[in-house]
Amino acid sequence: MMQISDLWIWQQSGWPQFSWQQDKLSPALARARLAQGKILGATRLLDTNLTREAIASILVEDGLTTSAIEGEQLNLDAVRSSVARHLGLPTVGLPAPARAVDGLIEVLLDATQHYSAPLTTERLLGWQAALFPNGYSVLHPVRSGALRGDAPMQVVSGRIGHERVHFIAPPRPWLELELERFLTWFNAKEAKSDGLIRAGLAHLWFVTLHPFEDGNGRLARAITDMALAQDERQSMRFFSLSAQILRERANYYTYLERTQRGGLDVTEWLVWFLIQIEAAATAAQQSITNTLAKAQFWLHHQANSLNERQHKVLNRLLDAGPKGFEGGINTRKYISLTKTSRATAYRELSELVAKGCLTSTGKGGRSTSYEIIYPCDGYDPHHPNGR
Fold first, then answer.
1. Residue 249: inside a domain, yes or no?
2. What is the pLDDT of residues 126-179, one digit of tens each?
3. pLDDT for 98
4. Which of 2, 99, 303, 328 would bridge with 262, disulfide CB 3.0–4.6 Å?
5. Which of 288, 317, 341 is the last residue before a domain boundary?
6. pLDDT in the model for residue 166
7. Residue 165, strand partner residues
8. Shortest CA distance to 2 belongs to which of 270, 274, 253, 268?
9. Residue 100 belongs to a domain with what CATH number?
């Protein structure tokens, strides 16, 4: 167990010379590499169009979850719209995205699509400005496109008078020098550590500097995605680390706080980080399976004449994957998704059943529910590997 220090990690003698115990990392690193290799292997089954759909699915998840970690709930359709527009996918029926949502997606794409470009202070300032295009974080003004001000940067919880300080960042006069030191390390041509370990170090180091008034967590995760793209030498992300961190949100903050209160041996943080890489890559294998199942579904039903509302509902069910759309689709949910009348919803659902797109879940009651019928061609989306 890590020893808790009276000093913050950036106050330790030797900062920022991190160390770790390789023998304790090796098992987690091997498992993370295996899971990473499996997901990259699975993507070879995707053609160009399916690759874009898989990337879109991961990018939507990334945008939603990296914001949710910070307590901000984005509108799903707004995120879908921004992702579709940036990737050249259909946007029919989707709303125009808000500037802040568009800015977030642009940051995530820039970090990975241009992973080989240097990470500079100017680039970071642009990313942070994109997150807060109106100069506000929810209802509070925030310095946009500029490093934080002179006030001490603290992460605090609890009501007034009973606050708990979780972390204090390096003082403002140190910030330019500390940020330049981080960027010099990140941009070094020859990495002295494994790429996944480097990604974990980059995440910890940047979030410890906390260079902005707001957006530091989202930017730390974008930098981590950039480091992972550099490790894989490809501009496409096929698994969402942010989604996994959201699932482990309490532990994420616990491990960060414990590490930032410890010494420069960051073994415990890196082991936890590698475990999350493994879990994120493993979870993404199901996403790839769902993408392939969606493609085969539409290939099977290409001769069916369906209207825009029916396409939208079927795509929503397919995107959710088997059992992902809780309770299936019923008349009430169809009305909510398509903004149509009850009579039209009932008629169009019946048509989808008649055309072999949907089948009853067997649960009756006031409103019968339906689920997707996947083509019987040997592809089983319920199976972890699709077969």
1. yes
2. 999 999 998 888 768 899 999 999 988 887 777 777 777 888 999 999 999 999
3. 87
4. 2
5. 288
6. 85
7. 156
8. 268
9. 1.10.3290.10
